[in-house]
Amino acid sequence: MFTGIVEEIGKVESLTEFGDGIEFTFNAKRVLKDLAIDNSISVNGVCLTTVRKTRNSFSVQAVHETLRKTNLGDLNKGSIVNLERSVKLQDRLGGHLVQGHIDGTGKVTAIQTLQTSWLYTISFPQIFRKYLIPVGSISVDGVSLTVARLHKNEFTVAIIPFTFEHTVFQQYKKGSCVNLEFDIIGKYLESLLKNTKL
User: Fold this and answer.
1) pTM of structure
2) How many other β-carbons are positioned within 10 Å of the β-carbon of residue 96?
3) Which portions of the chain are predicted below pLDDT 70?
4) In sequence order, what are the residues at sequence separation of 6 or more whose Cβ sits closer than 8 angstroms to the Cβ of residue 152?
């Protein structure tokens, strides 16, 4: 479980194919402090398992299904990613409950630069519209954000300078592919209502 509060930006050091998957090695600093082999870590919002660790890097493996459903398959050597260690029970929940289980990807359709912030509009598959509400939570590449504007198949989020500087939002362009995870509470409520006999 994660909170969607990105701890640092990591960089792809290497990619190695294994079968139909890829092993990624990322350079990092802060998240390595107490990261151990077999620990979960969020990479662009995707929950992955640490399989190797050195003084300056860690490695994870992404299988075909993960590559198919996320933007990890678009990464190259030198690409930057959002990193967050799994949350501890005694930690503050600074963002919202994020599982690291990506529902699908979206596309950046517009970027508006304001005086002290940025507005990013992102398209999403229509099937997920039911999980979004105005000023509700959404995870974009592992960043916990608030829906500022909501349309039929697009939503807009406002990004402050701190978030811009400390996440991969700084590299987004129109057409960029992003990982989306919708609020878990809405999904559980839907399942309960569908499977409860009244």
Assistant:
1) 0.93
2) 20
3) 197-198
4) 126, 129
